[in-house]
Specification:
5 helices, five-stranded mixed sheet, 20% strand, alpha/beta
Length: 145
C-alpha cells in the first residue's frame, strides 16, 4: 500500500444503534479532528453516498467525498469506526459493521481500496468482523491478514 498505513489509533469502536447519516458524520468528524479534511468535506461524503452506495461488501462501507471536493482534503488518510451492532447502509439492507472514511488528494485511495478488497472477498471476513472486540483485531482483518 502506498504511503498510507492504517494504525490502531485510526480505529474507534462505537456501541449502540445508529443511522448511516450518524456514521458518516462521526467518521467525518474523526477525519476533521485528525486534520485530514476541512469541515465542508462532510457534506461531500453525504453527496457521494447519494450518487452511489458506498457499501463495499462483507460488512464494510467506505464513505468518501466527491472528486470535486478534493481541495477539501488536507492530507490523504483514513479513519475507521467499528459498529458491533451494525448499520443498515442502503435500500438493499446491506449491514455495515466497519465504516472506513477515506480522504484522498488524488488517486491514492485506490491503493487503500485494493488492500481492503482482499478483506472484502475473503469468505470468513463477515464472521471475523462480527467477532471483533478490540481495534487490533479489526486492523489485522483490514490489512488483509
Amino acid at each position: 500500500m502506498s504511503n498510507i498505513q492504517l494504525k490502531i489509533e485510526d480505529i474507534s469502536i462505537i456501541n449502540g444503534f445508529y443511522t448511516k447519516q450518524d456514521a458518516i458524520k462521526a467518521v467525518s468528524e474523526n477525519m476533521i479532528k485528525a486534520g485530514l479534511v476541512k469541515p465542508d468535506y462532510t457534506q461531500s461524503m453525504f453527496d457521494r453516498d447519494l450518487q452511489i452506495s458506498t457499501f463495499l461488501g462483507n460488512g464494510i462501507a467506505i464513505p468518501h467525498g466527491t472528486t470535486d471536493k478534493r481541495d477539501s482534503v488536507i492530507q490523504t488518510g483514513l479513519k475507521v469506526i467499528y459498529y458491533p451492532d451494525g448499520i443498515n447502509w442502503d435500500e438493499d439492507n446491506n449491514i455495515a459493521y466497519v465504516v472506513i472514511g477515506i480522504a484522498a488528494k488524488s488517486n491514492e485511495h485506490l491503493d487503500i481500496l485494493r488492500q481492503l478488497t482482499r478483506a472484502v472477498i475473503a469468505e470468513d471476513t463477515i464472521k471475523r468482523i462480527q467477532s471483533v472486540k478490540k481495534p487490533e483485531e479489526l486492523l489485522i482483518i483490514l490489512q488483509g491478514n
